[in-house]
Amino acid sequence: MNIYLPIAEMSVNGLVVLIMGAAVGFLSGLFGVGGGFLITPLLIFYNIPPAIAVATGANQVIASSMSGALAHFKRRTLDFKLGFVLLLGGIAGSSLGIVVFAWLRALGQLDLFISLLYVVFLGAVGGLMLVESVNTLRKSRGGAVSLKRAGQHHWIHKLPLKMRFRTSKLFVSVIPVLALGAGIGFLAAIMGVGGGFIMVPALIYLLKVPTNVVVGTSLFQIIFTAAFTTIVHAATNQTVDVVLAFLLMIGGVAGAQYGAKAGQKLRGEQLRLLLALMVVSVALRLAFDLFVQPDNLYSLGPLGEF
Amino acid sequence: MKRMFLPVMILLALVGPALAQSEPQPEAEQAAPQYNESIQIGLSTDRITITTDFSGTDLTIFGALNDVDPQIARQNRYDVVVVLEGPARPVVVRRKDRVLGMWINTQSETFVNVPISYSVSTTRALQDMAQPSTYGRLSLGSAYMYLQPKDRDDDPQTIEEFTAALRERKQMTGLYSELIGGVQFLSPNLFRATLELAPNVPIGTHRARAFLFKNGLFIRETSAQLAIQKSGVEQSIFQAAHEYSLFYGIFAVALAIITGWLGRMIFNRD
């Protein structure tokens, strides 16, 4: 089933793309993340130009986040106020990210930068999660441990401009919330991810948001950041391939439901361990490409416009 | 794999010798003053549409020679080269080097007016037909075509290296192709050229050019235009993405939100 992608200007096997979307959707349902960090590298491995993989990945993330956020909205595990503040930061970060994206593309260093960001962030987040989940699994044999150490004060809690977030039972300065949103928005624009895989641990460990609210809030925020990223990429770089995105979305939303079901059968620590292993292996694969001599040293690109 | 043939018929009878004689060619006059060869090609259509299942195709062009020397024709000493040249764009060629253990794009060279695609079909291998200098002068053939660097003052060695890399990359991706024996004479006057269009053939206005050689000497050239475009839906999407890019982005977002929402409704089994 060959499908011609009008923006990428190439033919792909539609079935492969659908399966790719479904597989990532399954995993994102299983782990409660958007799946952008898997989709973009997969598209790049499938020879889609990185610039198009990134922008189209962002578009796909909207659909899976929307699906997930609706479920959390129903369960009332979504902090709108926190999501909104994160979003304000996200829009600012995303705008900057898109400018940097266009600049790197013209410079011919976009592919390198995308790969580097993936290696660094996936490697770091995956590594930390791996260590944490292995420790938890070990300790859980002795007894239950909570992730959140109550009553402990962090330097973050000493910053001014405090704000109360009722759903999250949180009284914290808006500065780290805005900064976190901005950082993730920036990464979202360049990496084509929603940023859930960074947002979730950051909200849990840095801001001490209750775990049950984290995923819903992060997904809610990601819908808007990814939507903004998609629109700006479409308007400035014309790199959103709607046909490719749609195929991925269909596979994705279908896969996500089965993933969520499968997830209920696994324990939290086991899930985190699996996710960590997957994140680390994507990082290693990308690092491999970066450090091993490529088959061809020369590449062609369009003339960049500043 | 759908192959598309575009048979093109030329009405030989209509092409009078008088028409051909209106443009005398100095090289031809020396070789055989009594013959004034001319070449013509025709396309049955002036546009090809790329549909969703497009995976490359063969394009057939028919052409005719007029006022040929029967003796030379009998000895197969007329050669024809047919080229389908895609729209020209500036291209940046980048080279990766090892920096801190990583392979990073470092040096680059920009070329202007590089045809995106260049498909050649010949009666014989180019090197058997004429001198390389002839092809150089005509800028004919992917190996001889002149590629103009943007910055002519760059080190000639660097320019040469990147020019070679540009040709090599284009050939590897199938955008520059050469089909030896792709032009066949059906009669002393009539020939058929088969050209390979790669699955990633660029859209835009292509130029079909036919070159006539006699005894290894260039006689005459003719050309015709061919528009390659995406079919209805693909074209609309491409146009929308470039002309109404903001609305296109908003549409993409709306599509994603609706798909996500519908997905939730359809698969919801809570």
From TrEMBL, chain A:
Cellular compartment(s): Cell membrane; Membrane
Membrane-topology descriptor: Multi-pass membrane protein
Recorded GO CC terms: plasma membrane
UniProt KW keywords: Cell membrane, Membrane, Transmembrane, Transmembrane helix
Family of the protein in this entry: Belongs to the 4-toluene sulfonate uptake permease (TSUP) (TC 2.A.102) family.
Pfam families given in the database record: TauE
Protein name: Probable membrane transporter protein
Transmembrane segments: 12-45, 82-106, 112-131, 170-193, 213-235, 242-260, 272-292
Stored InterPro entries: TM_pro_TauE-like (IPR002781), TSUP/Inactive_protease-like (IPR051598)
Main location as per UniProt: membrane
TrEMBL record, chain B:
InterPro entries hit by this protein: CHP02186-rel_TM
A Pfam family matched in the record: Alph_Pro_TM
Signal peptide bounds: 1-20
Stretches that traverse the bilayer: 246-267
The protein, known as: TIGR02186 family protein
Assigned keywords, A-Z: Membrane, Signal, Transmembrane, Transmembrane helix
